[in-house]
Amino acid sequence: MTTAMSGAMKSITNPAALQCRMCGARYNVEPLTICEECFGPLEPSYDLDAIEGVDFRKQVEAGPASLWRYEMLLPGGPGLDRVDLGAGFTPLRRADRLAAALGLKDVWIKDDSVNPSYSFKDRVVSVAATMARSFGFEALSCASTGNLANAAAAHAAHAGMPCYVFVPDDLERAKILATETYGAKVVAVKGNYDDVNRLCAEVADALPWAFVNVNMRPYYAEGSKTLGFEVAEQLGWHVPDHVVVPIASGALLTKIHRAFQELIAIGAIEEKPYRVSGAQPEGCRPVAQAFRDGADEVTPVKPDTIARSLAIGSPADGYFALQVARETGGAIEWCTEAEILEGIRLLASTEGVFTETAGGVTIANLKRLVDQGVIRPDEEVVAFVTGNGFKTVEAFEGTVEPSFHVAPDLDEFLAALG
Ligand SMILES: Cc1ncc(COP(=O)(O)O)c(C=O)c1O
Ligand SMILES: [Zn+2]
Cα(219)–Cα(125) distance, rounded to whole angstroms? Predict the structure, then answer.
């Protein structure tokens, strides 16, 4: 999707290169993921000096109501044939009743549960599928904890591409059903996500498929920046004091920070301190544990949690997520399984937003960080709610029943009501 205005920006919008996140070595924009010099991960690099903040804001505001309004700071730039289901530009909801329940004044929910396939993964897949098609790949694939499978399948269907998704064989039913219904082939692997990921790395070497989060990973991860761009724009072009972000691989958290940094670098927003905090479930908390231990390295774990979408025991961006939390003065916390359900209930019953288990992890850890005094009552806080509760109803199995069970009879109902 190209706007008339963004056409003029063409020369400054394409990332000039991929750059190594560890040693800075540069590479052409190709399906590469790892630095040949130091084996560090690669990411697109933009000529930020060539983008002027006020122009950027004007162009964004004139753009489509989707993540493509930020195409100047996305891979590929304008003019590319987008794989576009309209992901992004989701509501930033003021959450006064949740704030009151937590003892805060200023809380916002970034509600990404309303994307085309009902999670933030539609953002990363839009970007990865667009790049995959421009590189000439014919089939889309991914290693997924569930939501990515839905997003890849939906975008592949829209683009008319075959799709193969690899998942652990114990995922929620809705995620599997929807993926197959979109026309993708689900490969259920006997093992956890880290086993699935290893298999996918081998399949990506053997077959000419674009694995959105394996051989397309540098482009895929950039899609998560749009959550940071949107929050800044929706707050009237400023960064909040504190953000709380769920962590699986850690990519989302690092990219929200990168988005804020890029907006500051181009002068689209004023520089000010902000803190980035992370949220994990107790049953899969490798990054939160490293944070608490003061460790630099993240020690892999075997996940065991109802927050299946966050069940990555060996997180690719864990190291970087730790750095971001420490550099910005945030924290990475974990919550129990019971707290996940309480978090889902609290958000649903105060704000009318029904999130999945990952969102329960975010809200539960938001509460913990407030109770611990890490988040201060006067801070403006944004919590990222990244997936939809209708996909993970199993989490409530056996715990929720109708409040009343009556015959179609007024007297019986009034008696039951008491
Ligand atoms: C709903 C939801 N939220 C958050 C995440 C975490 O994203 P990341 O792997 O970038 O840390 C995932 C990952 O699958 C997810 O499905
Ligand atoms: Zn390198």
Answer: 9
